[in-house]
Amino acid sequence: MRKILLPAVMATSVLFAAAPAHAAPPAGQDAFAGAQVRIDVGGRKLNMYCLGKGSPTVLFEADAGRAGWDWSAVMPQVAARTRACVYDRAGMGASDPIIRAASVGNASRDLGFLLKNARIEAPLVLVGVGFGALVAQQYAWRSRGAVTGLVLVDALHEDALPAGRDVQLQAALGCLAAAEQGSIGPGCAYPAAAFNGETGPSLAAAQVAQLRKPTYWRARASELDSLEVSATQVRTARKPFGALPVVTVEQGDAAAIVAAVMQVLDQQSPLK
């Protein structure tokens, strides 16, 4: 099977240039390092963290093999305007392990249960990066109008998966074997997030602890192994977004992503 990573471009996109990274860990980053509220999604629980008040709710989707803490420099800024939430997909962060293939379709179904059981109602604006952008689009297509805006950051494209996926899958499986022996294998690191700024000690410790968990590496390998299935699922569900505001960000930092979210929020219809 295969792996990930390619930008997608949409007709309604606006591109933002990258800016310098944060010089210090974002304020409040420690809250992202552990479990917050764990929501049942059918016999399993996914970790979720929300800040702020207002409508629509902005929900963030992390990239492949990554947890919701990647958004620690972005989410609080959005929460100053409206309700903002992050969560960990199955096997990531403080969520329960995967019990099935970590495909886009299964992640989208988990997201539906999460939002329902967390009593987070429409309207929703979804922000996804990389693989998470595919999950966000898949959920938007099946949400029957609940999603009223999308921000896609360095999005993968289901029709243009890059080469080298088998190599990355084998590397993840090697890291899984090391984790099953209670160690972190050589080259088995948590990938840096360009838009997350500096990583403070609490979050760094949480990331290192995750690298020792076989459940994390199973989920990370499964996302890679399921990528071609995921691409087929996205192609099958794909349809025009119509008037839905969609903004893409290429190589964006936290400020660029926040600006894109604010642009989408500015286009939301006022609640009656």
UniProtKB/TrEMBL annotation:
Keywords: Hydrolase, Signal. InterPro entries: AB_hydrolase_1, AB_hydrolase_fold. It comes from Duganella zoogloeoides. It comes from the Bacteria. Gene3D superfamilies: alpha/beta hydrolase (3.40.50.1820). Residues 1-23 form the signal peptide. This is Alpha/beta hydrolase. GO terms for molecular function: hydrolase activity. Pfam families: Abhydrolase_6. Residues 67-224 form the AB hydrolase-1 domain.
